[in-house]
Amino acid sequence: MTIVAESPDGELMTLNMGPHHPSTHGVLRLIVECDGEVVTSCQPDIGYLHRSIEKIGEYLEFPQFVPYTDRVDYVCAMNANLAWCVAAEALYAMDPASVIKIPERAEWIRILVAELNRISSHLVAVGALAMDMGAYTPFLHAIALRELINDLFESICGARLTYNYVTIGGVANDLPAGIEPRIAAALDQIEREMRGFNKLITGNTIFRDRLAGTATISAADAVAWGLVGPNLRGSGVDFDLRRDEPYGFYDRVEFAVPVGDAFAGANGRVGDAFDRYIVRLLEILESTRICRQALKHLPPAAPKAADLVGGWQADVKAALRKPPKGEVHHRTEMPRGETGYYLISDGSKIPYRIRIRTGSFTAVAIIPKLAPGLMLADIVAVIGSLDIVLPEVDR
Amino acid sequence: MTVVAPPGKLTRQRVLELASERFPAATILVRPNSVPCLLVEAAHLIDVMQFLRDDPALDFKSLSDLAGVDLLKWPGEKKGEFLHSELMVVYQLHSLNHRHHATVKVILKRDTATVPSVAGLWPVAGWFEREAFDLYGITFSGHADLRRLLTPEDWTGFPLRKDYAYPESYGGVALKREGQHFDAGPYA
To answer: Any residues with CB less than 8 A from the CB of A286 and at least 6 apart, and which?
Structure first.
């Protein structure tokens, strides 16, 4: 529903939402102009978390940058590690002489941890959206499920949030003994409890009608405004880099790509906030499918790390000494959509330029377009449904 | 999962050939260990970009990325390649219908550093260009709202330029402690 703001005397109120506001998912300041409850304009003010990670990268060797990618997006740090590492590997592969051959087991471990992290990231997204809409309990259920994955990651790499696990050429260490049954059990539990989660909130009429038709983004707008990932697919655009430009072993797994389909029923529109929510829920289930396939394909561990089948870390000492002089633009599918690394190398050990294009950046950029005409409380629904993570916006 | 290329998919080289046949001012730049890209003069950028976006065979409806680059410390190369002391804007284009890609580059003089804004073609460019303006000091002419994006409004200098000097203080607050040494980095 679009309401045109009209005030007899034309007087508007300016409201500052944030930078410290529970519903802005980090330090985001929104300068909202409103006429009563109706928003007439909304300007995001970002940069509170700007650390200039791109500049820091120009001072570090390629492998040294991995821990910084954790801080690009700490909600899905495994995916952030992976995005950097596959981009750096793509740069090395521009010269046939310096291609890094990654062991098969490492590739499957990467898919496993990336998809587990995608599940935990989407759990935060759907839980936080419910919390933003006033339903606190589902958030706690989602966070409790996420703890399962954090525990698994703690066993795998010792950290719960910023992992520094994926490396150029593989992963930092092999999976610990006996972790596979624990992962399988956690996947079972997540699938079981997501049914409860859906009963609790997804089918809730108040929640559904609240999001139905709210902040609808057409497919053409989503593309023109550079939305990516679940936000793009929520608008009905069938595009997923894992399927359409596969990297790693993503071309060896079967999964469906959910797209928005006016899931909210009669009041729903393709590309509304509810569609974005449902797409994330469906992606959680698809990620559990991918994890199971990765567990099935995982070759047994070999004694040597650099073993091309059962190893977990390619022998990159020789290759990493000198990347080719050239450039690459590589895109990977993170939970918040396409992350593009544009890398320029002058042939030295240190990158000449690192450019990180993230999904949340464009998701914030579309807010000034979506906001006019919305009710003030819907701004919270917009932020929640776009799943914005602020360190990724500011970098 | 096997990926079937859509019938309209063109190679990067073919895309660039179509553009440079139409606009002789746009040249194809092939460098080692890099994908081929289109080098366009700033004066012709909008025409070329409009063609790339609207031609049905090309159909680049998506601007994946817009990156500024400072070539100040770029190591010497033979003539005809990147030159020193210039700035560069790199556009990454993608077609969702045909699934093909293109890279477009514009080289700018360091002292003027002005390029037309493509925000009228792709709204997403609005913020990308604000970021490049903020961090590289590149002016995008025709941009409706060209302000700093990530750094504070009263910040001086452009942090991602290779000759950027870290400020002594900001707003009366010392940013360098006594005796603190900032490594000028590998390119100093």
So the answer is: A255, A256, A257, A258
Contact between residue A232 and residue A220 where contact means Cβ atoms under 8 Å apart: no
For residue range B158-177, list pLDDT tens digits in order.
888 888 877 777 888 887 77
Alpha-carbon distance of A20 to A45, in angstroms, equals: 12
Say whether A338 and B64 touch across the interface (CB within 8 A): yes
Residues of chain A with pLDDT > 70, as a percent, come to 96
Q: Which residues contact B168 (CB under 8 A, 6 or more apart)?
A: B174, B175, B176
**What's the gap in Å between the CA of B111 and the closest CA on chain A?**
21
Tell whether B126 is within 8 A of chain A (Cβ). Answer: yes
- Which whole-number Å values give the CA distances from A202 to A129, A132, A365, in the listed order? 11, 14, 28
Cβ pair A326:B34 closer than 8 A:
yes
Q: Among B9, B149, B153, which would you mutate to test the A interface (most chain A Cβ atoms within 10 Å of its Cβ)?
A: B149
User: pLDDT tens-digit profile of B16-46?
Assistant: 888 888 888 888 888 888 888 888 888 889 9
User: With contacts defined as CB-CB under 8 Å, which chain A residues touch B2?
Assistant: 251
Chain B segment 39-58 residues within 8 A of A by beta carbon are: none
Task: Report the DSSP pairing between strands B139-141 and A166-167.
Answer: unpaired
Residue with tokens 């797209």: A259
Contacts across the A-B interface (CB distance below 8 Å)? 114
Within a 13 Å sphere around the CA of A272, how many CA atoms are in the beta-carbon half? 22
ipTM higher than 0.90?
Answer: no
What domains appear along chain A, each with residue ranges and CATH number?
A: 52-324 (1.10.645.10)
CATH number of B12-174: 3.30.460.80
> Mind telling me how many Å the CA of A329 is from chain B's nearest CA?
8
- Whether B152 has its CB under 8 Å from any CB of chain A: the answer is yes
Are residues A340 and A329 in contact, defined by beta-carbon separation less than 8 angstroms? yes
**What's the rounded mean pLDDT across residues A145-174?**
90
